[in-house]
Amino acid sequence: MLSQLSARKAAKKICNGNITSRELVTDCLERIKQTDDKIGAWAFLDSELALTLADAADVMHQKGAPCGPLHGVPVGVKDIYDTSNMPTAWGTKCHSDRRPNTDSAVVDKLHEAGAIVLGKTVTTELAFAMRGPTRNPYNDKHTTGGSSAGSAASVATDHVPLAIGSQTNGSVIRPASFCGTYGFKPTRGIISRRGCLQTSQTLDQVGVMGRSLKDIALLVDVLAGHDPVDPATYARAKPNMLKGARAKVPVEPIFAWFDLPYQNKLTPAMQEGMEEILSLLGDRVERISAPNSFTDVIREHQIIHEYEFLENLGNDPTTSPEHIHETLAPKRKSAERISEKTYREALKMVSAANNYFTEFFCDYDAIITPSALGEAPLLEEGSGDPICSTIWTLAGLPCLSLPMLSSENYLPMGVQLVGFTEQDDRLLRTASWLEKQLA
Known about the structure:
With 439 residues, the protein is an alpha/beta fold. The chain has one domain: Amidase signature (AS) domain (Amidase signature (AS) enzymes, Alpha-Beta Complex). The protein is 39% helix and 15% strand. The chain is built from 14 helices and 13 strands. The strands form two sheets. The chain has an eleven-stranded mixed sheet, with helices on both faces. α10 packs across α11. The chain is globular, with a radius of gyration of 20 Å.
């Protein structure tokens, strides 16, 4: 099946003339037709538009025009990124008819690379609390996690080789873990958030999902860049992700394992799986007691997230309690009780975390930690706890979920690696070494 090709192989075959973009997109659309009634990964899909875009890519290739790194390759985009030729509803019925006039930064970058935006993947409502309609591809009685639910499911079900997500807490790493895909949230500011639903200007970060380490590295290389519209981005050189994923380590890496404040919440399967990996790594891992401030980080993250969510969306009448899902109402009430002084104090934790990790990563190549507490919960139990991502997301560190474990119910579970700011290529290099060691 063409839909099972990696993004890199698909792009190479298209540019070599072995297959056409239309053939690839047709196969992906057929795969979606066969499976998405059960999975529910897509919020918007226009097959005719997708094939038109694929035909245009093929014509460009036939004319000898330059091929971008993702020429003719279909990609799913989370339904919080503006698209001028598709609706962007932010996962809520309140904005079901929202049609942006311009594309978001990530969509601009995808077009520049020659990719085909196949459609919009399901997000939880306003990329926040409630569980969306998407079901886990491994067992449809279980969740995919949130909020990048459709992005994870679309990759795991072979609908597309790559998809764009976002992370304000654990919304890339957790769904990737639950769905058995690779998930990568690069350093805060490497990818512009222009044209993306803003829930938290401090915490919102762009992430990606794919089927291989090299595929997600390539996608982040495509998306990376400075954007004056987004103050989190920066005008200096970025790490070369794909080069990092391909590189060999100069010396065997040293990992840090923190005994974290939520360790007792890990399921037995996750505890056993992580202990097995730590045992295999032997003296390449140093176990460390987490500083008391890590508990503070988790609390301050919630304060920042809720305060900024209300600040960004609280004055929008369509997000009032009578219009949004009932699971968001408690979050809104909690946010209304946070004073500006409390919020300003919480913001200090971001720079404190940055200072701590600047010194910490002098001695370690990566932190190794679970991507989630265990397997994907049952649908009625919600989308799962994002706590395994909270500390690293607040600090803006690059985070990577590797599909390495499975539960007693044969559901996937991810192993997370966390690296230092703007050393994403080193993190990918370390991850490549780890995969080979544990193969």
